[in-house]
């Protein structure tokens, strides 16, 4: 089986410890009965799902692991996902989101590659992605709900969510939970998967898929992905990008440690030792009950309070410096401004119990490959929306190689944001890049990644494989994917040309 961007290091066991829930035996029995009773669903033949419940998994809280018919993240075959839920429940979900911003789960039936899975939980997913979502003549932005169209306020308004409509659920971003309403259930080892949106600015999301694949090739922890045809309540969209979610099972595959998700609403400021004060900053993913937020709080306090000398000498005791250097270098190479220092706070922290050190985990790369291809190793990645286009004969372009977007000046490690926009920057990343103690390791990792991912043709090869994976699915828009792939190839070529002569890359 072919897994785009997923080398042998990524094929790991799917043994998943999760929290026990009450009455799981009764729920598991009901789930099995429903699965056996699954018959014809929609227009195609639906297979009742096959399950396995090894004693080790059951003891850890996994009661049902649905095998399915084919590996969901095998990109060498087409996939099909079908969601069905009640109209009233969907309206209630949208009303709740527009009124409060809360994304509540509703119950739905799901069919994946012919296997019916009843009573999954589905909810909207994303922050900036949903900014500008419209429904019933209303639009929701970070400033609240307003009537009618026109320019949307707030970061991302009119850019991310402006093409998303509540009346078109088949195009919305979804988080699918297999255990929200059936405790202990997994699908091929996963408790959750994410369905990325169908956005007008990029119908295929090739940029995100390529970025995920390159992270996998780099050796850093990343995600798996695939494309699949997708329909909701009989409404069909083109192939959607399906992405592995960083859940309890993902944490188990990383080893013995604790996984923490950074929240878009939070920051990295020390607020004292009361853990309840950090609930808007981080969410603990696994080991709930046997671990807590204290390691993260300790790291936050130290990063914010340490002198420059203490930071330089003590960071390696608290953080895998080599891994972090690769993480930071990747964000620059991938032209991803919305990383841990971006407005979405898109990252996870992994705490290794044996070494007592952290690693930063890549997450949410939908804004990769949309900035200035001439951005250097020590330049900040500027925000850029929509597929990159090369300059025309008059030198007009959304972003021109060698020239900063929007007429700004690119300076060494210049700050991004300001002017009342979203909060940018991150104390850990900013201090790391500002410290001369880590310049050498950062530049060494940057050179190695550029040589192994870009200059040697790996990125171009992966892009070809991703396009082929997209085209295998029903409803594929071949003209659109070819156009977007051509634009992305031009950006890659411009990126390689610009960096090839850079002093950091050349080692001079």
From TrEMBL:
Keywords: Capsid protein, Virion
InterPro entries in alphabetical order: Spore_coat_CotH_CotH2/3/7
Region annotation (Disordered) ranges: 374-428
Lineage top rank: taxon: Bacteria
Name this polypeptide is given: Spore coat protein CotH
Lineage, top ranks: Bacteria, Bacillati, Actinomycetota, Actinomycetes, Streptosporangiales
């Amino acid at each position: 089986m072919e897994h785009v961007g997923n080398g042998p290091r990524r094929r790991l066991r799917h043994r998943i410890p999760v929290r026990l829930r009450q009455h799981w035996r009764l729920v598991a029995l009901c789930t099995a009965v429903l699965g056996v009773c699954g018959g014809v669903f929609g227009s195609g033949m639906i297979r009742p799902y096959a399950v396995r419940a090894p004693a080790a998994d059951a003891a850890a809280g996994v009661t049902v692991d649905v095998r399915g018919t084919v590996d969901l993240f095998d990109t060498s075959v087409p996939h099909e996902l079908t969601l069905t839920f009640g109209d009233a429940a969907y309206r209630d979900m949208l009303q709740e989101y527009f009124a409060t911003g809360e994304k509540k789960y509703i119950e739905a039936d799901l069919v994946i590659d012919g296997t019916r899975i009843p009573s999954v939980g589905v909810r909207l997913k994303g922050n900036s992605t949903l900014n500008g979502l419209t429904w019933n003549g209303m639009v929701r932005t970070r400033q609240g709900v307003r009537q009618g169209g026109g320019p949307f306020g707030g970061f991302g308004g009119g850019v991310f969510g402006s093409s998303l409509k509540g009346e078109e659920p088949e195009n919305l971003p979804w988080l699918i939970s297999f255990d929200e309403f059936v405790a202990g259930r997994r699908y091929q080892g996963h408790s959750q998967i994410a369905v990325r949106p169908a956005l007008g600015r990029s119908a295929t999301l090739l940029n995100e898929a390529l970025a995920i694949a390159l992270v996998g090739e780099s050796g850093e922890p990343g995600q798996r992905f695939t494309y699949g045809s997708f329909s909701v309540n009989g409404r069909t969209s083109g192939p959607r990008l399906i992405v592995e979610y960083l859940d309890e099972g993902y944490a188990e595959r990383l080893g013995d440690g604790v996984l923490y998700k950074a929240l878009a609403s939070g920051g990295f400021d020390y607020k004292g030792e009361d853990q309840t004060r950090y609930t808007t900053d981080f969410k603990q993913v696994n080991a709930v009950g046997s671990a807590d937020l204290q390691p993260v709080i300790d790291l936050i306090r130290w990063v914010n309070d340490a002198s420059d000398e203490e930071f330089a000498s003590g960071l390696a005791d608290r953080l895998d410096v080599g891994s972090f250097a690769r993480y930071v270098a990747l964000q620059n190479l991938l032209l991803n401004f919305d990383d841990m220092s971006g407005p979405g706070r898109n990252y996870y922290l992994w705490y290794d119990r044996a070494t007592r050190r952290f690693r930063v985990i890549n997450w949410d790369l939908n804004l990769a490959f949309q900035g200035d291809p001439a951005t250097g190793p020590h330049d900040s990645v500027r925000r850029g929306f929509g597929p990159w286009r090369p300059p025309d004969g008059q030198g007009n372009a959304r972003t021109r190689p060698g020239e900063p977007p929007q007429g700004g000046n690119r300076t060494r490690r210049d700050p991004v944001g300001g002017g009342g926009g979203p909060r940018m920057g991150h104390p850990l990343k900013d201090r790391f890049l500002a410290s001369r103690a880590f310049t050498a390791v950062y530049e060494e990792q940057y050179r190695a990644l550029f040589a192994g991912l870009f200059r040697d043709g790996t990125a171009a090869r992966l892009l070809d494989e991703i396009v082929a994976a997209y085209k295998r699915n029903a409803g594929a828009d071949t003209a659109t994917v070819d156009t977007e792939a051509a634009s992305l190839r031009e950006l890659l070529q411009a990126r390689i040309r610009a960096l090839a002569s850079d002093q950091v890359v050349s080692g001079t």
